[in-house]
Amino acid sequence: MSMMQPLLITQGDPTGVGPEIILKALLAGTFDALRRPLVVAGDVAILRQAAAIYGQSCEIAPGEGLATHRLRLGERELGVAALSKLDPLRLKYGAPDAACGQAMLDYIEWACARCLAGEAAGIITAPINKAAIRAAGGDFPGHTELLAARCAVEKVVMMLAGERLRVALVTTHLALREVPSALTTESLLQTLRITHAHLQRFFALPKPRLAVLALNPHAGESGLFGDEETRIIAPAIAAAQAEGLAADGPHSADSLFHFASQGSHDAVICMYHDQGLIPLKLLHFDDAVNLTLGLPIVRTSVDHGTAYDLAGSGRASHASLAAAVRLAAQMADQIS
Ligand SMILES: NC(=O)C1=CN([C@@H]2O[C@H](COP(=O)(O)OP(=O)(O)OC[C@H]3O[C@@H](n4cnc5c(N)ncnc54)[C@H](O)[C@@H]3O)[C@@H](O)[C@H]2O)C=CC1
Ligand SMILES: NCC(=O)COP(=O)(O)O
């Protein structure tokens, strides 16, 4: 086996599409070109069940290194770190219980710890169910916040990236009504700095052009529809410009994406989750990658959720997972 450090894929919700898209990607040869070994942080029985969806049975053999097992499917292999022992017969697609929530947490915690210990080169995450994690006692709304806490980083940025559009979010998992009070000049300025640094480092953009969106319609219409633009957003843009960042705005959110998708900017800084993810998914539903900027470790993810309506059918696309693995591998190579 190669001496290069492995990339770790966390299996995500055992009752969602995570396990089956990992094996779909394996069967499709998606990982063949990777120079690094891949290890799934997951559950052997759940992966066996996922293989059966494609009419395949997998052979399981002892693993080495971080992999407790080797999973062979057709002519291809994958390492597995067996971190849970769930019983697929007791689970129902789309209905994760607290044991599933605990397993999802364990996969992420383990993978993060391996990266922090310098034993692995990065993490690619399959989708979790945040409510099941809560049922297991996990107090994190998503991977982004959990990984930031474990890496002891105060501010990270969720970015979703496709060929035509990249969006970076100032706020992530919170109720819409809480967004205005969560926005501060400092958090926006930090988002701009982190996004700028990351685009320089990993996307070969010497002077990334960052478009900052307004929060309110028509960028607040001179204060008629809100004052966050003048009170919070404009001062952060001015401060970023004073530091030499190519940031501009606040732009009306309804028009800006059209221009950004045609190349006017390298990333769009969005005030809240759906402001950025709706246009992103309209353009890149199949192939966008979610990545966490500002961590000391590499973390990428699929851009979608557990897709319970598809779980167990084999119809879920593995394209976003493939893109997430490719990007994590590129980033890991740049770091090492
Ligand atoms: N990174 C993560 O862990 C994420 C987890 N989630 C979680 O997923 C659960 C469901 O969230 P939803 O908002 O319903 O989003 P979702 O992405 O699971 O589903 C939305 C729609 O997209 C379709 N879809 C999703 N992935 C697909 C794929 N690979 N191929 C083809 N179609 C696909 C689904 O069938 C559904 O129609 C929630 O518990 C949420 O918290 C959501 C987004 C990201
Ligand atoms: N819609 C993307 C998303 O919510 C992903 O969150 P996270 O689990 O990556 O923090």
TrEMBL record:
A divalent metal cation binds at residues 173, 218, 273. Pathway: Cofactor biosynthesis; pyridoxine 5'-phosphate biosynthesis; pyridoxine 5'-phosphate from D-erythrose 4-phosphate: step 4/5. One of its GO terms (cellular component) is cytoplasm. Its EC number is 1.1.1.262. GO terms for biological process: pyridoxal phosphate biosynthetic process; pyridoxine biosynthetic process. Keywords: Cytoplasm, Metal-binding, NAD, NADP, Oxidoreductase, Pyridoxine biosynthesis. Substrate binds at residues 143-144, 281, 290, 299. It catalyses: 4-(phosphooxy)-L-threonine + NAD(+) = 3-amino-2-oxopropyl phosphate + CO2 + NADH. Binds 1 divalent metal cation per subunit. One of its GO terms (molecular function) is metal ion binding. The keyword Transferase does not apply. It is found in: Cytoplasm. Its cofactor is a divalent metal cation. InterPro entries: PdxA (IPR037510), PdxA_fam (IPR005255). Homodimer. The active site is located at the dimer interface. Catalyzes the NAD(P)-dependent oxidation of 4-(phosphooxy)-L-threonine (HTP) into 2-amino-3-oxo-4-(phosphooxy)butyric acid which spontaneously decarboxylates to form 3-amino-2-oxopropyl phosphate (AHAP). Belongs to the PdxA family. This is 4-hydroxythreonine-4-phosphate dehydrogenase. The gene is pdxA.
